[in-house]
Task: structure prediction
Amino acid sequence: MQELDNKKRINDFDHEIDLKELFLVCVRSKWIIISMTAFLLMIGIIYSLLSPNIYQSKALLAPVNESSSLLNETQLGGLAGLAGINLPIGNQDVNYKKAIEVMNSLNFFEKYLLPKIFLPDLMAVKFWDDKKNIIVYDDSIFQKSSSSWVRDFSYPQKLIPSAQESYEVFKKNHVGISEDKKTGFVTLFIKHQSPEISKKWVQIIVEEINSFYRQKDKESSERAVIYLNKQIANTNLLEIRQVTASLLEKEIQKLTLIEANKDYVFEYVYPPSEMEKEAEPNRFLIIILSLLLGFFFGIVIVLFRHYFLKEKNALEITSG
Result:
């Protein structure tokens, strides 16, 4: 037992000597550590200064609650099924969840967003001049003076960026959509070098998704109204005519609400703002990380040199 304790004390002593050796090695080679730290710190400072400011505009959206059914579902269910009309009673929760998926889709981007945005603002921005409040474009990609694309490209890319390529850039670098499962609120944000554009794009997305579903339901109700009018004209049964007329009244009321309601799927809890302070880059964090990385790599280099030379000398002595 005493022998084990003696071995433990010897190992602890050796370990202490090793730590002292490491410390002394670092002190003796402190200029290497300082030089590496200063080098990476300078790179971090230059990178942070050259990185363009990115502004984030954010909106909090709430699903619009659909008004309760005006007629009894049981009374109208049989006739609605017979007529082939799918009554959207209590489907608003499903609609807004679908709307989130639609907003994330390539089809929505291509048909509803891309025509509303200036493509070079997505694919050719160099930086935003905050003093002149203008976007400066990368001349190697897009020349504003001639409104022409001049970028280098390779298959499957094209000279003018396609909808699919633009969509990938939009999804990766600019847009974010998330849902709070507890409240049902949806957060939508856009990142861009221009705070004006980031706000504008958020507004476009909200307007277009509301317009998309409003138009879709409007067309559905208009078809239902036409069909129901034909049913009324073609039936002589009083009960069927009454129920059909009630269903027709519901669809006409729905059409009125569709036309009057601008916020059809989502309404703002708070709208997007044109931000004055950038969201990225975090220059302070970049500098701190550069400092720590420089110090870490400096120590690694010093210790590697020390133990490499130590092992090399040991091998030379052994071979000699």
Strands lie at 55-63, 125-129, 134-137, 142-143, 148-149, 175-179, 186-192, 266-270. Residues 13-17, 67-77, 83-94 have pLDDT under 50 and may be disordered. Residues 113 and 204 are 7 Å apart (CA to CA). The first strand starts at residue 55 and ends at 63.
